[in-house]
Amino acid sequence: MAATLGQIYGTAPTHVATDNFAERLDRISQTVTSRRNKGKLPDDSTRACRTLVIRGYNTGEEYCAFINTLRDPRIGERAAASRKWKPDAHWKLHLSPSYWLLKALRFPKGIAVDEAGNINRPDLYRVWGNTLLPCLMGGDDLQLPPTVMTVDEKDEEGHHRNRLAQDGKISALEFFRASGWPIFRLRTQ
Question: Per its UniProt entry, which superkingdom is the organism in (predicted)?
């Protein structure tokens, strides 16, 4: 996908899934680049370059981590963890300068979604936007559906506050499959 489109924006439904996705892309890029460059001289014009994989985080966490890393370069993974009343940040040093850097390098020409069976449509649309970029989704139909926190929330009269909660449980992958979009089913991994 990246070879034909150029820059790709990848996403996943959880921090762990996004970390794993970015880590996997980076590892594959290293392996493929090393294999393609084996036996080539450093000044060979046919040498392949590694793909730049950037793992984006919350803007506030990223800013805090950036400033703390400038103050103390040895701080490492604890750069965004200096928050008094909030839970620890999910920020990690590996694969970060993050979302603003991706924007500075130009917008992507396509997106890739890992664990699309667990991501809800609003989260996908936030990344995809209204541009209809090429979108590659991978996921498992039997995976847990997207989480909707307000399914059972009711007002004083007993009416459901979120009347679209059941619709929110439909994953982006399931929605596009049911809509008749072209899909390729990989039966084994």
Answer: Eukaryota
Residue 113 bridge partners (DSSP): 11, 137
For 47-102, write each residue's pLDDT tens digit: 888 887 878 777 777 777 777 766 776 776 676 765 565 666 666 655 665 434 44
Distance CA 70, CA 42 (A): 32
Domain ranges of the chain: 2-36+50-55+94-178
If you classify domain 2-36+50-55+94-178 with CATH, what class do you get? alpha beta
Residues 6+ apart with CB under 8 A from 123: 11, 13, 146, 172
Kindly report the pTM of this predicted structure. Answer: 0.52
